[in-house]
Amino acid sequence: MPERPDRRPTPAKRTPWLRPSGHAPAPPSPPPAPLRPNHNSVIDSAVYREGRRVASPTTLAATFRRLREQPEGMAWIGLHRPTEAELHSLAAEFNLHPLSIEDALEAHQRPKLERYGDTLFVVLRAARYLDAQEEVDFGELHVFVGPDFLITVRHGAAPDLSSVRRRMEESPDLLSLGPEAALYAILDAVVDGYAPVVAGVQNDMDEIETEVFRGDPEVSRRIYELSREMVEFQRATRPLVGMLHGLMAGFAKYGTDEELQRYLRDVADHVTHTSERVDGFRQALTEILTVNATLVSQQQNAEMRALAEAGFEQNEEIKKISSWAAILFAPTLVGTIYGMNFETMPELKWVGGYPFAILLMAVVCVSLYVIFKKRDWL
After folding, report:
1. Nearest alpha-carbon partner for 136 in 191, 198, 189
2. CA 346 to the chain's CA centroid
3. Where are the beta strands (DSSP E) in the chain?
4. Share of the chain above pLDDT 70, in %
5. How far is C-alpha 240 from the geometric centre of its chain's CA atoms?
6. Rounded Cα gap, residues 86 and 203, in angstroms
7. Cα separations (Å) of 258 from 167, 188, 192, 293, 322?
8. Which partner for 139 in 126, 150, 152, 177 could form a disulfide, CB atoms 3.0-4.6 Å apart?
9. How many Cβ atoms sit within 10 Å of the Cβ of residue 148?
10. Handedness of CA 12, 15, 18, 20 (dihedral sign)
11. Is residue 261 very low, low, confident or very high in pLDDT (cuts 50, 70, 90)?
12. Measured between alpha carbons, how far is residue 78 from residues 43, 59, 91, 289, 355 in Å?
């Protein structure tokens, strides 16, 4: 690729997005691999001058060419899951650091803000609430910010950067402030996208509380799944708080535009509020899980107690049945013996044999009844 002409004027002042850091200058990038002709992950690419779109190239090569033709212009390139060849093409054109390219390729990065020479690399975690599945879907966004360019590399469905671009194009005065203003708009869109997620999670929390006290057996799984989503949400919002406060700390030092200062403070307030809500959700879910475990334990104890009571009542009935069976067994035994048709039974010819047999049966039955009664079997 031919050497890019120097068309970046030294700015009179720098905003906190372009503050210096301790990173060493980026080493020369390797020559870009040829782009695959059938693959183009460019969602939208435009060249702006004084906050107004002057070109809408459809390829990266065309964007590079049109930007060279606009010495005071700014390129805003939006990519979705770009290939390694496309990222190396950008690295060669804009002198992007290999480490940042590696991060953009691999994704699954924590939110962070790093400085490589005169380029700022920002990683953001966007989120959206899926009503049908009642779950939170997380996306990842990498942003490269230079003196005259802004590149977004999106991994996932969120956030919708097309609406951000339209809003900025409707405010050319704000967009004319440069790539920093576009970065603000992206930060604002990511943070605003957290609000529907917070509302959806709050609704899930209310439903979970109802299910817990209703004794729904599936509520434990739902609590666990929502807790894992809140861990991810916390990882997305908590680092962002520190990043924005670090940017605000450099307002006075770097002479940030007053309008951008107000915007960034507003974004920081929203992030702080969201982070506090997420922390509250995690604490509440922990307490709900504890309450659910207590209720389940109480329910199990009640069921065991009911089973024990049922077993005790069953034993009492068995005692009564066994007692009466034993009482009735005595006369049955005597009657059975004397009901045999044997001629050699001496008691058959005894005059007192019948009264004696009746008396014997009565004595045995009464004795057994008294014994069982004393033992509370009857």
Report:
1. 198
2. 94
3. 42-49, 52-55, 74-80, 112-116, 119-130, 135-145, 149-155
4. 86
5. 17
6. 42
7. 20, 17, 21, 53, 95
8. 126
9. 20
10. positive
11. confident
12. 5, 11, 15, 42, 114
In the predicted structure, residue 10 carries a pLDDT above the cut 50? no
DSSP state letters, 170-189:
T-HHHHTT-HHHHHHHHHHH
179-192 and 161-169 helices cross at what angle (nearest 10)? Answer: 130
Tokens of 251: 């307002």
Assign 308 a pLDDT band (cuts: 50, 70, 90): confident
Name the residue type at position 81.
R
Give the Cα separation of 28 and 90 in Å (integer): 13
What tokens were used for 173?
Answer: 């005065």
Q: Please list, residue by residue across 150-181, b when 16 or more beta carbons sit within 10 angstroms of its beta carbon and e when fewer do.
A: bbbbbbbebbebeebbeebbeeeebbebbbbb
Tokens linked to 285: 């879910």
Tens of pLDDT, residues 140-190: 999 999 888 999 998 877 778 888 999 999 989 888 888 888 998 999 999
CA 161/CA 173 separation, integer angstroms: 19
Contact criterion met (CB below 8 Å) for 17 and 247: yes
pLDDT digits (tens, 9 = 90+) for 48-106: 998 899 999 989 999 999 999 888 899 999 998 888 899 999 999 999 999 988 888 88
Beta bridge partner(s), residue 137? 128
**Count of other CB atoms within 10 angstroms of residue 217:** 9
Q: Three-state DSSP class for 47?
A: strand
